[in-house]
Amino acid sequence: PAKKKDIRDYNDADMARLLEQWEKDDDIEEGDLPEHKRPPAPIDFSKIDPGKPESILKLTKKGKTLMMFVTVSGNPTEKETEEITSLWQGSLFNANYDVQRFIVGSNRAIFMLRDGGYAWEIKDFLINQERCADVTLEGQVYPGKGAEESEKVKNKTKPEKARKKKDADKKSNSIKEDNRATKQREDL
């Protein structure tokens, strides 16, 4: 049997064990659980429009944290980007959207949403702003009002990924050609 200690003699480890014992039998409400431990919300397939793939994404992202990248047009300084995105965040806050903003470059910011189901409504608001060059959401780049004419190709996929893949394929092919053991195996 464990020896009983006086409460005044408890150290941090003893207090942690005591807390674990108290919380062992507690019922934790679903809303208090971390996001990765919550059960996914049921998807109502009757609301899905087969003509719009975004409707599927809206329903699957509902209730989950989501991030979108926003680029400010022109050549703003980091302070200008801070001011412009702060105005956008304030407008979204006034429309009851819970959005957090993080500046990640001189012309780029991340908007983090607690409920990803509203991401496409927020994206629509952002791309209609005069100084918005583009919004990147779930791998799709949506050009904004402030985008240059050459960049206004709707819903283009990020070209960097395809280019990196092609470069990697070229490198692997050149390595295969230079590798003697590989050539001998192919000849057999």
Q: What does this protein structure show overall?
A:
With 188 residues, the protein is α+β, with helices and mostly antiparallel strands. It has a domain at 55-152: ACT domain (Alpha-Beta Plaits). The protein is built from six helices and six strands. It has a six-stranded antiparallel beta sheet, with helices on one face. A hairpin with a 2-residue loop joins strand 4 (132-137) and strand 5 (140-143). 16% of the residues are buried.
Q: What attributes does this structure have?
A:
188 residues; alpha+beta; Alpha-Beta Plaits; 6-stranded antiparallel β-sheet; 6 helices; 6 strands; 40% helix; 16% strand
| CATH 4th-level superfamily of the domain at 55-152 | ACT domain
Low-confidence stretches: none
- Output the strand order for the largest sheet: 2-3-1-4-5-6
Number of helices: 6
List the secondary-structure elements in sequence, H or E.
HHEHEEHEEEHH
Q: Which bin fits the share of residues in helices?
A: 40-55%
Instruction: Specify the CATH class of the domain at 55-152.
Output: Alpha Beta
Rg over CA atoms, rounded to whole Å, is 26 Å
Question: Per CATH, which architecture of the domain at 55-152?
Answer: 2-Layer Sandwich
Region (Disordered): 23-45, 143-188
Organism: Grus americana
Biased composition (Acidic residues): 23-32
Biased composition (Basic and acidic residues): 146-188
